[in-house]
Amino acid sequence: MADRAALEDLVRVQGERVRGLKQQKASAEQIEEEVAKLLKLKAQLGPDEGKPKFVLKTPKGTRDYSPRQMAVREKVFDVIISCFKRHGAEVIDTPVFELKETLTGKYGEDSKLIYDLKDQGGELLSLRYDLTVPFARYLAMNKLTNIKRYHIAKVYRRDNPAMTRGRYREFYQCDFDIAGQFDPMLPDAECLKIMCEILSSLQIGDFLVKVNDRRILDGMFAICGVPDSKFRTICSSVDKLDKVSWEEVKNEMVGEKGLAPEVADRIGDYVQQHGGVSLVEQLLQDPKLSQNKQALEGLGDLKLLFEYLTLFGIADKISFDLSLARGLDYYTGVIYEAVLLQPPARAGEEPLGVGSVAAGGRYDGLVGMFDPKGRKVPCVGLSIGVERIFSIVEQRLEAELLYKKNPKLLNQLQYCEETGIPLVAIIGEQELKDGVIKLRSVASREEVDVRREDLVEEIKRRTSQPLCIC
Amino acid sequence: MADRAALEDLVRVQGERVRGLKQQKASAEQIEEEVAKLLKLKAQLGPDEGKPKFVLKTPKGTRDYSPRQMAVREKVFDVIISCFKRHGAEVIDTPVFELKETLTGKYGEDSKLIYDLKDQGGELLSLRYDLTVPFARYLAMNKLTNIKRYHIAKVYRRDNPAMTRGRYREFYQCDFDIAGQFDPMLPDAECLKIMCEILSSLQIGDFLVKVNDRRILDGMFAICGVPDSKFRTICSSVDKLDKVSWEEVKNEMVGEKGLAPEVADRIGDYVQQHGGVSLVEQLLQDPKLSQNKQALEGLGDLKLLFEYLTLFGIADKISFDLSLARGLDYYTGVIYEAVLLQPPARAGEEPLGVGSVAAGGRYDGLVGMFDPKGRKVPCVGLSIGVERIFSIVEQRLEALEEKVRTTETQVLVASAQKKLLEERLKLISELWDAGIKAELLYKKNPKLLNQLQYCEETGIPLVAIIGEQELKDGVIKLRSVASREEEALSPLTCLTGFLLPAEPGLMTRRRHGRSAVEHKMLIPPCPSFLARWTSEEKTLWRKSKGEQASRFASAELSKLSEESGTHTI
């Protein structure tokens, strides 16, 4: 058995080596060589009868929520839902799976991360990848042209996530979207307002909302001389600027993606800029950019947006950032992403790092992809990254937890202490004779006799918060 | 194209005929004949290129929830969750899929209804079929021997359900379970108490809870002479007694399942009995049944259970019913099922039929199937059939033509003239920051009539109107949509305080400093609070209107607390 364990270790190590080489895109011969070694080792191992037949675990990338984690989840959802309702949103729900074809062609390269259901006869199905595409399908199917709704549900991605950092294959999304043809930037500004309200209420630290516009990006690429075919791939390089330096991004553009160095430099001059409404005004004067129709439209809308955000009192939280690109194919106008400014880690905690906690944007074309006649319904929305927020709140609660020495008590009283039940109704023989119940406060240990018929009222009185303090 | 449509109709009709025959178990020849006709028709139809390439629908057996349906769902869940919490339950959640092997061998024949995920590399996965097996896996994995928890989530079954009757392939279960080694029948009695509390609170009509015990069934089959190998299949015949007559059940037992007629008759003498604790006592005296160890245990426990149920005041809702069998393999002791006594249908409604709305029982062996050392954790629990309940409540609301609000917006911020967008945005931002539920129309210059109409349509009770004159006077006009009364309020912070009571907790996030006035605004709804204000505060509250203002304000306040939420069911 010991030999077998050693052999299993070898197989594991060799397997990792092969995966590593594949990731580094090593040469085919090298990979083949290492795979051959792996197969030889596996052959030595023989059939795996030795293993326990039953593995007790949740599927990769998923987790159970314990009662403690559920308490955090409920608290976070309460804040988010009450904000969505404050802004007059309705709520909908959709099935966890959709027809496979509903999801096809909506996520670009990421489509490979979609979970498919097995073909067991009948329709081909896939688990939902986000809540936006099901929402667009819902609008088209019900011929709705107007709705403000929120939707909180789990979505599924066959990713290789870092679970310690709050990333899972099954995870919650909290989406708020406004669909309909309205005067420009009014719904967009409300989305940003909602984002700021929620992040402030959650008290997870200082944050900044980066804002950009797809049309400005496209216009900028055009005037810098990026060929149309390379817009998307250069876009995804630009998107990395929040993690790596401009030099590295430039190297990727020129080295890997074959952009001319002077084109890259022109992009660099733009995308390294960020600021407030003054930057918008400056770019509106930019001799080249202002000549591009798309960019001009985007900049004009951003200017209006900043006006509204000032009236909403949140302009100081917003940064116009030309490097914000957002991966998803379906965005057509304003895009935004909220990042935490300071890691909320304290002494002894694993730092969660800064990063995106909410994001969204305008997608005016998606519903039209579903409508039989291609009728468009303009939409703008946001999604709160609650899993990261759960992690932050959970870590904080752990740090704040105070351990109390447990005094020795009767089992029933001890149970109250452990679970935090504030009151004990004690029935004793004497009390029965007297027609009373002894009500004990767990915290103060005070005991009073309460008449049996008054007990319900008394417990209600003691456990409810005073309704009127005047 | 018209010909094609006619042909498609024929195919549909013929398809229904075939399915009908199969259901009636018609002869093989007859079915074959009709299938041949169907295939011929389909051949005439040819390949279906004519159809649109993209089908805009949800998968078979699933549905979206509209805002209206969500309102019903939230109401029903509120009742259920508050009951579970009242009984001290914690809450957990598990992934929507499990390792395939986790579900294997837990559901007997029904396993064929499990949804599998495609093998895309990595683990083999299946969607959860219920919440009980994931719960048992959770207990074993975390080595828990003690928990009282609830779990509300969707489960998945590749069934062919009648969706009109509230049955879906994706549907909610609301489970409550007590795990742990306790004195007999105490957790079991609490489960039945919970079931009764929930069904009473939901007010979906009169109900009865049938109770039986697996051990009594097994003991009864043994003394009647049913061979061990036939226990399960005879059990499932017995379970049909709530839908068909004893004669039909007997025919199935004898004809299809090969039971001797006299054995079936002996079973019939038992399973047609139901009653209260007196039936338990009668069977405890039954010369044969009382000799069977298993049956005796079951009857003893039921007697104790009835004692507890009497103390809980619900014995009159309970019927000991020897025909209750429950399909699932994992039950080991007490089992129960709640049925509605009267169909809740009224004139003009499609009757939903009577049927099970909640069920559960004791399963002492399931956790042991997961534990590496086979350690057992006794469990007892219940599951509320919420989809049926949703249907009943939805139908009732439709019949009453009751208007269900799908938002909670308290006030619409409106303008009386053009060019007041800035003022509207400033005011609504202040209201949001103070925790008021507020909306505005996304138009630069909306017409007042359109704004008022929006309130009527969506049920928003109040409109805060900004006008040029009001701006000069430093007031806001607050209009009640229902009564059309209008009142000028000032300054803006007073409007905030006026509306605040509906959601007191959010006041902590105000942007303004906490003045004495605002401090008072933290006070929850209480019509008398105006009387306590200082004269200075009163001046702030109503500009110049005298006594009328405060009368209006308190009337509005009490109305607000009624109107701010959705209507009760």
Automatic annotation (TrEMBL), chain A:
Q: What catalytic activity does the UniProt entry give for this protein?
A: tRNA(His) + L-histidine + ATP = L-histidyl-tRNA(His) + AMP + diphosphate + H(+)
- Can you supply one Gene Ontology CC term for this chain's record? cytoplasm
Which of this chain's residues are annotated to bind L-histidine?
A: D130, L131, T132, R157, Q173, D177, R326, Y330, Y331
Q: Which UniProt keywords apply?
A: Acetylation, Aminoacyl-tRNA synthetase, ATP-binding, Cytoplasm, Ligase, Nucleotide-binding, Phosphoprotein, Protein biosynthesis
Where on the tree of life does the source sit, at the highest rank? Eukaryota
What gene does the UniProt entry assign to this protein? HARS1
Q: What does this protein do?
A: Catalyzes the ATP-dependent ligation of histidine to the 3'-end of its cognate tRNA, via the formation of an aminoacyl-adenylate intermediate (His-AMP). Plays a role in axon guidance.
Q: What's a single GO MF annotation on this record?
A: histidine-tRNA ligase activity
Put simply, this protein is called Histidine--tRNA ligase, cytoplasmic
Q: What residues does the WHEP-TRS domain cover? A: 3-59
Q: Please name the Pfam families in this protein's record.
A: HGTP_anticodon, tRNA-synt_His, WHEP-TRS
Family, similarity comment? Belongs to the class-II aminoacyl-tRNA synthetase family.
* UniProt-listed GO biological process terms: histidyl-tRNA aminoacylation
Where in or outside the cell? Cytoplasm
The EC number of this protein is: 6.1.1.21
Q: Which CDD domains match?
A: HisRS-like_core, HisRS_RNA
* Subunit structure of this chain's protein: Homodimer.
Signal peptide position in this chain?
none
Automatic annotation (TrEMBL), chain B:
So which residues are the signal peptide here? none
Q: Where is the Aminoacyl-transfer RNA synthetases class-II family profile domain?
A: 61-393
Catalytic activity, reaction form:
tRNA(His) + L-histidine + ATP = L-histidyl-tRNA(His) + AMP + diphosphate + H(+)
According to the UniProt entry, the coiled-coil residues are 390-417
Instruction: Write down the EC number.
Output: 6.1.1.21
The answer, when asked if RNA-binding is one of the entry's keywords, is no
The record's section on PROSITE patterns has:
AA_TRNA_LIGASE_II (PS50862), WHEP_TRS_1 (PS00762), WHEP_TRS_2 (PS51185)
One molecular function GO term is: histidine-tRNA ligase activity
Which keywords does UniProt give here? Acetylation, Aminoacyl-tRNA synthetase, ATP-binding, Coiled coil, Cytoplasm, Ligase, Nucleotide-binding, Phosphoprotein, Protein biosynthesis
Task: Identify the residues that the record assigns to the WHEP-TRS domain, covering every copy.
Answer: 3-59
> Per its UniProt record, what InterPro entries does this chain match?
aa-tRNA-synth_II, aa-tRNA-synth_II/BPL/LPL, Anticodon-bd, Anticodon-bd_dom_sf, His-tRNA-ligase, HisRS-like_core, HisRS_anticodon, uS15_NS1_RNA-bd_sf
Listed under GO biological process in this entry are: histidyl-tRNA aminoacylation; mitochondrial translation
| Subcellular location field | Cytoplasm
Protein function: Catalyzes the ATP-dependent ligation of histidine to the 3'-end of its cognate tRNA, via the formation of an aminoacyl-adenylate intermediate (His-AMP). Plays a role in axon guidance.
Q: How does it assemble?
A: Homodimer.
Please report which protein family the annotation says this sequence is part of: Belongs to the class-II aminoacyl-tRNA synthetase family.
Q: What is the name of this protein?
A: Histidine--tRNA ligase, cytoplasmic
Organism, as annotated: Bos indicus
High-level lineage: Eukaryota, Metazoa, Chordata, Craniata, Vertebrata
- Underlying gene: HARS1
